[in-house]
Amino acid sequence: MFVDSHAHLTSKDFDDDRDEVIRRAIDVGVAIIVNPAVDEADSRRAIELAEKHPNVFACIGIHPHQASHADENAIASIEELSSHPKVVGIGEIGLDYYYDFAPKDVQQRIFRWQIEIAQRRNLPIVIHTRESIDDTVRMVGESIAVCPTWRTRGQGSPAARGVFHCFSGDIAMATSVIEMRFYVSFPGMVTFKKAELAQSVAAAVPLNDLLLETDSPYLAPVPYRGTRNEPAHIPLIAQKIADLQGQTIEEVARMTSCNVHDLFGIGEKEIRLSRRENK
What we know:
alpha/beta; TIM Barrel
Protein backbone atom coordinates (compact mmCIF):
# COMPACT_ATOMS: atom_id res chain seq x y z
CA MET A 1 0.00 0.00 0.00
CA PHE A 2 1.26 3.48 -0.92
CA VAL A 3 0.86 6.95 0.54
CA ASP A 4 0.75 10.11 -1.56
CA SER A 5 2.20 12.61 0.90
CA HIS A 6 1.41 15.68 -1.23
CA ALA A 7 -1.51 16.07 -3.64
CA HIS A 8 -3.58 19.21 -4.23
CA LEU A 9 -6.94 17.50 -4.56
CA THR A 10 -8.73 20.78 -3.86
CA SER A 11 -7.32 22.24 -7.07
CA LYS A 12 -9.94 23.29 -9.60
CA ASP A 13 -8.31 20.81 -11.99
CA PHE A 14 -10.20 18.10 -10.08
CA ASP A 15 -13.58 19.83 -9.87
CA ASP A 16 -15.17 17.55 -12.47
CA ASP A 17 -14.02 14.17 -11.12
CA ARG A 18 -12.51 14.55 -7.64
CA ASP A 19 -14.24 11.51 -6.14
CA GLU A 20 -13.28 9.37 -9.12
CA VAL A 21 -9.64 10.50 -8.78
CA ILE A 22 -9.64 9.36 -5.16
CA ARG A 23 -11.25 6.05 -6.13
CA ARG A 24 -8.64 5.42 -8.84
CA ALA A 25 -5.90 6.01 -6.29
CA ILE A 26 -7.43 3.48 -3.90
CA ASP A 27 -7.78 0.98 -6.75
CA VAL A 28 -4.00 0.97 -7.36
CA GLY A 29 -3.12 0.73 -3.68
CA VAL A 30 -2.80 4.36 -2.56
CA ALA A 31 -4.21 4.03 0.94
CA ILE A 32 -3.67 7.59 2.16
CA ILE A 33 -3.52 11.00 0.46
CA VAL A 34 -2.28 14.11 2.25
CA ASN A 35 -3.75 17.32 0.80
CA PRO A 36 -1.75 20.50 1.51
CA ALA A 37 -3.42 23.90 1.17
CA VAL A 38 -2.18 27.14 -0.37
CA ASP A 39 -4.22 29.81 1.44
CA GLU A 40 -6.91 30.26 4.08
CA ALA A 41 -9.86 29.43 1.81
CA ASP A 42 -8.06 26.40 0.41
CA SER A 43 -7.28 25.27 3.96
CA ARG A 44 -11.01 25.17 4.68
CA ARG A 45 -11.63 23.22 1.47
CA ALA A 46 -8.89 20.76 2.39
CA ILE A 47 -10.53 20.10 5.75
CA GLU A 48 -13.96 19.65 4.14
CA LEU A 49 -12.52 17.11 1.70
CA ALA A 50 -10.75 15.25 4.50
CA GLU A 51 -14.00 15.11 6.47
CA LYS A 52 -15.68 13.46 3.47
CA HIS A 53 -13.00 10.84 2.75
CA PRO A 54 -11.47 8.72 5.55
CA ASN A 55 -8.25 8.19 3.60
CA VAL A 56 -7.64 11.92 2.91
CA PHE A 57 -5.91 14.21 5.42
CA ALA A 58 -5.27 17.94 5.35
CA CYS A 59 -2.30 20.19 5.86
CA ILE A 60 -3.25 23.85 6.13
CA GLY A 61 -1.27 26.99 5.49
CA ILE A 62 -0.38 29.87 3.21
CA HIS A 63 1.89 29.23 0.24
CA PRO A 64 4.64 31.81 -0.43
CA HIS A 65 2.88 32.75 -3.68
CA GLN A 66 -0.01 34.00 -1.52
CA ALA A 67 2.08 35.73 1.13
CA SER A 68 1.21 39.25 -0.04
CA HIS A 69 -2.48 38.50 0.48
CA ALA A 70 -2.03 37.20 4.02
CA ASP A 71 -2.24 39.18 7.23
CA GLU A 72 -2.38 38.49 10.95
CA ASN A 73 -6.08 37.60 10.71
CA ALA A 74 -5.36 34.95 8.09
CA ILE A 75 -2.57 33.55 10.22
CA ALA A 76 -4.91 33.48 13.24
CA SER A 77 -7.44 31.53 11.15
CA ILE A 78 -4.79 28.99 10.18
CA GLU A 79 -3.94 28.48 13.84
CA GLU A 80 -7.60 28.05 14.75
CA LEU A 81 -8.15 25.54 11.94
CA SER A 82 -5.04 23.59 12.96
CA SER A 83 -6.95 22.06 15.90
CA HIS A 84 -9.21 20.07 13.54
CA PRO A 85 -8.64 16.31 14.04
CA LYS A 86 -7.94 15.69 10.35
CA VAL A 87 -5.29 18.40 10.12
CA VAL A 88 -1.94 16.64 10.31
CA GLY A 89 0.49 19.46 9.48
CA ILE A 90 1.08 23.08 8.53
CA GLY A 91 1.72 23.51 4.83
CA GLU A 92 2.37 24.19 2.10
CA ILE A 93 4.59 26.95 3.45
CA GLY A 94 8.04 28.28 2.62
CA LEU A 95 9.86 30.61 0.26
CA ASP A 96 9.81 31.01 -3.51
CA TYR A 97 12.30 33.44 -5.06
CA TYR A 98 11.83 32.08 -8.57
CA TYR A 99 8.41 33.58 -9.25
CA ASP A 100 8.82 36.18 -6.50
CA PHE A 101 5.07 36.90 -6.31
CA ALA A 102 5.65 38.46 -2.88
CA PRO A 103 8.63 40.47 -1.54
CA LYS A 104 11.21 38.30 0.19
CA ASP A 105 10.72 39.96 3.57
CA VAL A 106 6.96 39.35 3.38
CA GLN A 107 7.47 35.70 2.42
CA GLN A 108 9.88 35.26 5.29
CA ARG A 109 7.53 36.85 7.81
CA ILE A 110 4.59 34.66 6.78
CA PHE A 111 6.83 31.59 6.77
CA ARG A 112 8.15 32.37 10.27
CA TRP A 113 4.66 32.97 11.67
CA GLN A 114 3.48 29.60 10.37
CA ILE A 115 6.48 27.74 11.73
CA GLU A 116 5.59 29.25 15.09
CA ILE A 117 2.04 27.89 14.77
CA ALA A 118 3.46 24.44 14.05
CA GLN A 119 5.70 24.69 17.08
CA ARG A 120 2.86 25.77 19.38
CA ARG A 121 0.67 22.96 18.10
CA ASN A 122 3.58 20.47 17.88
CA LEU A 123 2.74 19.78 14.23
CA PRO A 124 5.09 19.04 11.32
CA ILE A 125 5.51 21.43 8.40
CA VAL A 126 5.41 20.87 4.64
CA ILE A 127 7.98 23.12 2.99
CA HIS A 128 8.02 24.63 -0.49
CA THR A 129 11.33 26.10 -1.57
CA ARG A 130 12.39 27.29 -5.02
CA GLU A 131 15.57 29.27 -5.66
CA SER A 132 15.49 29.89 -1.90
CA ILE A 133 16.82 26.80 -0.19
CA ASP A 134 19.65 28.56 1.67
CA ASP A 135 17.27 31.04 3.31
CA THR A 136 14.72 28.30 3.93
CA VAL A 137 17.20 26.05 5.70
CA ARG A 138 18.58 28.99 7.68
CA MET A 139 15.14 30.05 8.89
CA VAL A 140 14.19 26.50 9.83
CA GLY A 141 17.45 26.14 11.75
CA GLU A 142 16.81 29.38 13.60
CA SER A 143 13.32 28.23 14.52
CA ILE A 144 14.63 24.93 15.86
CA ALA A 145 17.20 26.79 17.97
CA VAL A 146 14.40 28.85 19.53
CA CYS A 147 12.22 25.78 20.16
CA PRO A 148 14.43 22.67 20.31
CA THR A 149 11.65 20.55 21.83
CA TRP A 150 9.44 20.96 18.75
CA ARG A 151 8.14 17.52 17.76
CA THR A 152 9.29 15.78 20.91
CA ARG A 153 6.93 12.95 21.75
CA GLY A 154 6.39 11.05 24.97
CA GLN A 155 9.49 10.04 26.94
CA GLY A 156 11.61 12.40 24.85
CA SER A 157 11.24 10.39 21.63
CA PRO A 158 11.69 12.73 18.62
CA ALA A 159 9.35 12.80 15.63
CA ALA A 160 10.16 14.21 12.22
CA ARG A 161 9.69 17.98 12.04
CA GLY A 162 8.53 18.10 8.43
CA VAL A 163 9.30 17.47 4.80
CA PHE A 164 11.00 19.46 2.06
CA HIS A 165 8.57 18.58 -0.70
CA CYS A 166 9.57 18.39 -4.36
CA PHE A 167 13.19 18.41 -3.23
CA SER A 168 15.54 20.13 -5.67
CA GLY A 169 18.78 20.40 -3.70
CA ASP A 170 21.94 18.33 -3.93
CA ILE A 171 23.19 15.55 -1.66
CA ALA A 172 24.91 17.96 0.73
CA MET A 173 21.72 19.97 1.18
CA ALA A 174 19.67 16.81 1.59
CA THR A 175 22.04 15.72 4.34
CA SER A 176 21.63 19.06 6.12
CA VAL A 177 17.85 18.81 5.91
CA ILE A 178 17.82 15.23 7.19
CA GLU A 179 20.06 16.15 10.11
CA MET A 180 17.40 18.67 11.19
CA ARG A 181 14.90 15.75 11.29
CA PHE A 182 13.19 16.51 7.98
CA TYR A 183 12.28 14.18 5.17
CA VAL A 184 12.79 14.89 1.47
CA SER A 185 10.23 13.88 -1.13
CA PHE A 186 10.19 13.51 -4.89
CA PRO A 187 7.27 13.83 -7.33
CA GLY A 188 7.08 12.72 -10.96
CA MET A 189 10.08 14.83 -11.96
CA VAL A 190 12.32 12.02 -10.69
CA THR A 191 11.17 10.01 -13.73
CA PHE A 192 12.14 12.73 -16.24
CA LYS A 193 15.01 11.84 -18.55
CA LYS A 194 17.00 14.99 -17.82
CA ALA A 195 16.38 15.05 -14.04
CA GLU A 196 19.89 13.85 -13.24
CA LEU A 197 20.21 15.80 -9.99
CA ALA A 198 16.89 14.60 -8.57
CA GLN A 199 17.71 11.04 -9.60
CA SER A 200 21.16 11.15 -8.02
CA VAL A 201 19.74 12.40 -4.73
CA ALA A 202 16.86 9.91 -4.78
CA ALA A 203 19.38 7.14 -5.37
CA ALA A 204 21.64 8.21 -2.50
CA VAL A 205 19.23 9.21 0.27
CA PRO A 206 18.29 6.25 2.52
CA LEU A 207 14.71 5.04 2.19
CA ASN A 208 14.03 5.89 5.82
CA ASP A 209 14.52 9.57 4.91
CA LEU A 210 12.24 9.64 1.84
CA LEU A 211 8.57 10.24 1.11
CA LEU A 212 6.57 9.68 -2.07
CA GLU A 213 4.42 12.44 -3.54
CA THR A 214 2.69 13.33 -6.79
CA ASP A 215 2.24 17.10 -6.25
CA SER A 216 -0.95 16.57 -8.27
CA PRO A 217 -2.15 18.05 -10.54
CA TYR A 218 1.42 19.05 -11.43
CA LEU A 219 4.56 17.15 -12.52
CA ALA A 220 2.99 13.98 -13.88
CA PRO A 221 5.54 11.17 -14.21
CA VAL A 222 6.61 9.51 -17.43
CA PRO A 223 4.69 8.26 -19.44
CA TYR A 224 2.03 10.82 -18.45
CA ARG A 225 4.29 13.87 -18.50
CA GLY A 226 2.45 16.93 -19.76
CA THR A 227 -0.97 15.70 -18.62
CA ARG A 228 -2.86 16.24 -15.39
CA ASN A 229 -1.20 14.36 -12.57
CA GLU A 230 -3.16 12.42 -9.94
CA PRO A 231 -2.44 10.21 -6.90
CA ALA A 232 -2.98 6.99 -8.89
CA HIS A 233 0.44 7.67 -10.47
CA ILE A 234 2.30 7.14 -7.18
CA PRO A 235 3.32 3.55 -8.10
CA LEU A 236 5.25 4.90 -11.11
CA ILE A 237 7.27 7.21 -8.85
CA ALA A 238 7.81 4.43 -6.33
CA GLN A 239 9.05 2.10 -9.05
CA LYS A 240 11.54 4.68 -10.31
CA ILE A 241 12.95 5.18 -6.81
CA ALA A 242 13.09 1.40 -6.35
CA ASP A 243 15.07 1.10 -9.59
CA LEU A 244 17.46 3.90 -8.56
CA GLN A 245 18.10 2.29 -5.18
CA GLY A 246 18.15 -1.35 -6.27
CA GLN A 247 15.14 -2.06 -4.05
CA THR A 248 11.77 -3.67 -4.62
CA ILE A 249 8.73 -1.47 -5.05
CA GLU A 250 7.22 -3.28 -2.07
CA GLU A 251 10.08 -2.14 0.15
CA VAL A 252 9.79 1.44 -1.11
CA ALA A 253 6.06 1.38 -0.34
CA ARG A 254 6.62 -0.09 3.12
CA MET A 255 9.37 2.27 4.19
CA THR A 256 7.79 5.44 2.85
CA SER A 257 4.47 4.53 4.47
CA CYS A 258 6.27 4.06 7.80
CA ASN A 259 7.87 7.46 7.29
CA VAL A 260 4.47 9.07 6.75
CA HIS A 261 3.31 7.54 10.02
CA ASP A 262 6.34 9.01 11.79
CA LEU A 263 5.73 12.43 10.25
CA PHE A 264 1.96 12.82 10.31
CA GLY A 265 0.88 10.14 12.79
CA ILE A 266 -1.37 8.44 10.24
CA GLY A 267 -1.16 5.00 8.71
CA GLU A 268 -2.33 1.57 9.76
CA LYS A 269 -5.94 2.44 10.71
CA GLU A 270 -6.50 4.41 7.51
CA ILE A 271 -4.99 1.66 5.37
CA ARG A 272 -7.51 -0.82 6.84
CA LEU A 273 -10.39 1.59 6.16
CA SER A 274 -9.19 2.13 2.59
CA ARG A 275 -9.02 -1.61 1.96
CA ARG A 276 -12.51 -2.10 3.40
CA GLU A 277 -13.99 0.66 1.21
CA ASN A 278 -12.33 -0.80 -1.86
CA LYS A 279 -13.91 -4.27 -1.46
